[in-house]
Every structure is written in C-alpha cells, then in structure tokens.
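SAMPLE LOG
Freezer: B-3
Tube label: C17
Construct: single chain, 349 aa
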Amino acid sequence: ATMAPHANLRLLGMGNPLLDISVACEDDALLKKYDLKLNDAILAEAKHAPLYEEMATHGDVEYIAGGATQNTIRVAQWMMQREGATAYMGCVGEDKFATQMRASCENDGVLANYMVDASTPTGTCAVIVKDGERSLCAALNAANNYKAEHLDASENFALVERADFYYMAGFFMTVSPESIMRVAKHACENKKTFMMNLSAPFLMQVPPFLATLMEALPYVNILFGNESEAVTFAESQSWDTKDIKEIALKISAMPVAEGKPSRTVVITQGCDPTVVARDGAVEEYAVIPLAKEDLVDTNGAGDAFVGGYISQLVQGADVAKCCAAGNYAANKIIQESGCKCPGVPSFTA
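STRUCTURE (predicted):
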C-alpha cells in the first residue's frame, strides 16, 4: 500500500514569504538615509521604495530566502532531518524570486505550498547588517495578498488537517487575520498545538494589528518573542513593568480559550538567557556563547531559535531540551549570513 500523502507532516507554518536582499555596511549612512534602526523590523513606506534598487547595485548584495515563518519552518525541518515533516503556506508572485525561494524550501525538505498571485511581484525584505546586528524593512507585495480562500481549498486545508503543530509569525497578522483564526480554532477543536510570535514592536503599536493579536492569543499554546517585543506588549496593556520575567508570567496567565491547556511564553534576549513562563513559574535557559569574531549577522536568529525549539517539541521533548535546541540552531544561523542551514545538525541534548 502506498503511504497517504503528507503522512510524515507534523508542522505547518503560514506567513509572508520574502526574499531577503542583504547588504553589510561599515557605517550607518544607509540606515540614516532611510530612517531605519538596527534590531528593528518594519513595513516599507513610500520613502523606502528606492532602497531596494540602491541595495541591488551594492557590490556584495546577497539574495537569501527569508520571511520569518518560512525561516523557522526551514530550520525546524533541518533540525528534524525527517522527510516531509514540515510544510509552509504564503503568497508569492510568478517570478525568479519565487523560484529561488521554492528551491530553498525544496533543498531544506520543506513542502512550499504557495498561493501564486501572478499580477504582483514576490515580496522582498531589505536586510541592512552593521556590526552583526540587522535592520529589516519588508516590501510585502504578493505576500500581502494571501487569502483565506487558498487555505479553504480542500487540497490545502488537507495540510492543516494532517499537521498537529502550527506556527505563524506575528507579521502574518497584517495580511490574513481570517486565516490565523481558522487555524487557531481548528487547533483548539482538535487539541493540537498553535504557536505564534510577537515578531516586532510595531504590531503591538498599531491598534488593528494589536486587536488581531488579542483575538488570537486565547488560542495560542506557545507565544514566542524577544525582550523589546515583550516590553512593547506590556506597554500595550498599560502594565507598569519592564521586567521580562514578570511580563512573561503575566502573558502566560492571560485567558485561554475553552479546552486549551495553560499557555507557555518564551522570550529570547539576545545573548542573555531565554525566559520561559508557564503555570505561574518562570525558568531561564542560558544561550551558547559566541565570540564576536564568529558572529556574521543576527538576521534569522530569533526565527532559528523557534525552529530549533519546535523541532524538539514535535518529538515530545521537555522545555529544557526545546530551549537547548533553539539555542543550538540560533548559534549556527548567526554564523551564516541570513537564514542558511549549514550541513547536518549535530544537536544532542
């Protein structure tokens, strides 16, 4: 008997597939010119339009498969080394950038189940790297046109039904709240694991995006984020604290949908320990130290942490092992430019 299609599928990601256009700069002229900050992620405005062309003329410009969720799914697949364990959905155009991202997913063993909008170019993300830190400016283009109708098509929803873990970066909240809630509710009704990421401060500072987050949050089993996002979330709730452990605990204690287990909140802090809050308790997990000269860039570090974490979660591991795998994956990815999975992982916990 032949195996059912997608028999190995465990993890499905949905998000904005973007090709990273990455340039390393010695000074902050480019950042200043386009009003960009390191360690930030924003959506492009009209003033950023010339940035992409300007970067394309840069001598050492690199084009690398990106998009936060797509990065995470690729890293999870790399860490699991199990054929067909992961799939990803998002919207691309019909162009060479889409072809390159498909190839990256295929090379990493991820099923890229893209919706194609031939009338719109594939989304890109400007990545400006200085001293190993990165600034992101995304021109979503086709990624912005993902529609819940694609998700609802039976051959696509089959992936939702087959998977038992779901992950979406917060960035997808600007695109298809309807798709997020469809999957969130499916996960709740079927006792599956739904995970999201705070992803960027602006998502909590723009009222409609924050509203989408608050609607989804009761359905979130595990919420990821970094320290600046955690602080911004606390501000959005008028909590008078900047203490990461306290914020993580408070988010973990927010209401969950009927039938959901308690929420786990995982906050990374760059080279400081990762904070994990659940059931009124908070733990810290140290990161793997890296010599400054070995740091290439932090682009994809947070995404890689989540990919490593989920790769073990899917296999039933405890939080300590999940965090160890997350920190292993992040450590490897920051020694590459962008999110590239090097060789075969040697992770053991």
